[in-house]
Amino acid sequence: xxKNIGILLLALSLTAxxxxxxxxxxxxxxxxxxxxxxxxxxEDSLRSIRSELAKSGxxxxxxxxxEYYAEKAKLTxxxxxxxxxxxxxxxxxxLRASDPYTYGTISRTETLVDGKGAxxxxxxxxxxxxxxxxxxxxxxxxxxxxxxIASGSGDFDWEPAGDxxxxxxxxxxxxxxxxxxxxxxxxDSTLSAGFEAAGFSLGGTSGTSRVYRNYYDIHHxx
Length: 222
Description:
With 222 residues, this protein is α+β, with helices and mostly antiparallel strands.
């Protein structure tokens, strides 16, 4: 009898150490399915491109793949699905077929006027598709439509003198950006001294408003 009890206790002990059937049949539990990479890991993958941009005061704002392709589809007058499928087929044939791409708006801000109560800045940049991991990054594509936006203490417009020129250079490490145009500022007369001191020319008046203009060239390597 004692021998039988000992055998029974040993069997119960072994059974308790085995995972339940329900858990064994579901190795992909809820925690695994909802797993998302920590913010620190995502940020570390962008370390290279953020570091390069920071050298000249430029910034990166991440956008979704859908937002990127919605913008690209507008430029090509095609459906989003058509453009995306064509790109995915092309990417599957590249050397980096297994690498995930990131999408973002790259921009830089320059101050043209900042004194005597007056302020004027221009922000310029582009949307891009790129690969970035640790100490390496590479621009895969930039959308043809760059942007230049003027802002400040008044109403501002950027009047382009021609098309924006952009080119991926240095084996994908940088993007050259070039644009020329006129910054048109409609401001209160109390701000006139600040704009005139910065080299803006008076182009007209209307009541207490003054219209100033300044031709500006942008040459920058992101």
